[in-house]
């Protein structure tokens, strides 16, 4: 019985997490209220508070979004053994599909809090480091396989890939650039720093 209760509580927590995400996408972080989450979850605000206050709920939702984003990218890259395919998959999975890409929007909705909240900043740094690690591992592998002739240290190049992505993501979310334009730009950077043309390897 205790196990069932625990399982049921975790299921309710997961459902509430999804409600927090939906409310964030509709209201934005600054306009978000406990009532918005309760409405999305179909419960009372008091029932929502059982799982934590507004800040705690938003923090947990951001943690979950980071994990989902990171896992999806890592799994996409790990599907291949050839570093060239891994790099293509990494870029492809990391770029927003468009202005309505819910997962990417969630990550960017929370970012401004990092400027004033140490816990939020720590989460954002962890996300950045995880993405850098993926790129860096691919670049090292590509060099070992003889596909990439790196112009600079792998971690430095990996950090630049992530920084470029972050800047371009805002452009995609604001409808100022298309996903195709961003992927093309990242491929061009990859060609410049690895000596390999991703467009020529399919």
The shape is elongated
Domain module tally = 2
**Distance, first to last CA:** 53 Å
Under CATH, the topology of the largest domain is which? Tetracycline Repressor, domain 2
- The pLDDT mean sits at 90
**What's the Cα radius of gyration?**
19 Å
What's the order of the H and E elements? Answer: HHHHHHHHH
Number of helices, where a helix is a run of at least 4 consecutive DSSP H or I residues:
9
Briefly say what this structure is.
The chain is mainly alpha-helical and 202 residues long. The chain is built from nine helices and no strands.
Helix and strand topology:
Layout: H1 2-27, H2 34-41, H3 45-49, H4 54-78, H5 83-94, H6 102-110, H7 118-144, H8 154-173, H9 179-194
Structure description:
- The protein has 202 residues and is mostly helical.
- The chain has nine helices and no strands.
- The radius of gyration is 19 Å and the shape is elongated.
- It has two domains: 1-52, Homeodomain-like (Arc Repressor Mutant, subunit A, Orthogonal Bundle); 61-200, Tetracycline Repressor, domain 2.
């Amino acid at each position: 019985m205790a196990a069932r209760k625990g399982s049921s509580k975790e299921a309710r927590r997961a459902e509430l997490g999804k409600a927090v995400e939906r409310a964030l996408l509709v209201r934005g972080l600054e306009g978000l209220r406990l009532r918005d989450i309760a409405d999305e979850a179909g419960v009372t605000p008091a029932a929502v508070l059982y799982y934590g206050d507004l800040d705690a709920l938003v923090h947990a939702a951001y943690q979950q979004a980071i994990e989902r984003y990171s896992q999806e990218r890592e799994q996409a890259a790990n599907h291949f053994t050839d570093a060239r395919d891994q790099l293509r998959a990494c870029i492809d999975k990391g770029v927003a599909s468009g202005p309505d890409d819910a997962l990417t929007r969630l990550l960017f909705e929370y970012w401004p809090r990092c400027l004033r909240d140490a816990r939020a900043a720590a989460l954002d740094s962890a996300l950045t480091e995880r993405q850098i690690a993926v790129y860096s591992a691919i670049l090292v592998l590509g060099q070992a396989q003889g596909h990439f002739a790196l112009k600079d240290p792998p971690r430095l190049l990996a950090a630049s890939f992530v920084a470029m992505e972050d800047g371009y993501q805002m452009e995609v979310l604001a409808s100022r650039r298309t996903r195709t334009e961003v992927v093309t730009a990242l491929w061009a950077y990859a060609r410049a720093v690895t000596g390999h043309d991703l467009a020529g390897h399919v």
